[in-house]
Amino acid sequence: MSGVNTTTWYGMNWIRQERRDALHERDGWACVYCGRSRAEDPRLVLTLDHVSPRSNGEYNASRNLVTACLACNSAKRDHSLRRFVVRFAAERGLDPDAIRRRVRNAQRRKVPGGLDGRRCARATSGEGTKP
Fold first, then answer.
1. How far does the chain reach from its first CA to its final CA, in angstroms?
2. What are the helix (H) ranges across the chain?
């Protein structure tokens, strides 16, 4: 998405900016949980969320990373996707199946530029090997 300021990292420098932007591009610059996008609100703060929490020792592979707005990422914390979706959907009056579909679809799409992170190390050791 051209003209978008992606320089603010909010302390999340565990992933190269080029790969971060590619993941946001894959997800259409929109939160997979609530559906809000930069197209609707250019000031929306987008982050990357680990679908399976890092606290469970999950990897930084692209399949485990999805775009989330700061509010949704903060609400999800280290909860499992299942637990988060049930609670989040009930609070916001959203369809939990639609949220799960958005997450699955994002996980299945290829990351632009070949920055899929297949050879990444565990979250505790940083980003891992460069693709």
1. 22
2. 17-26, 70-76, 81-92, 96-108
Handedness of CA 111, 114, 115, 118 (dihedral sign): positive
The pLDDT tens digits of the residues spanning 77-124 come to 989 999 999 999 999 999 999 999 999 999 999 998 776 654 443 333
Extents of the domains making up the chain: 17-114
Residues 49 and 30: beta-carbon distance below 8 Å? no
Neighbours of 62 (CB within 10 A): 23
- Alpha-carbon distance of 103 to 57, in angstroms, equals 20
pTM here?
A: 0.74
Q: What is the DSSP letter of 14?
A: S
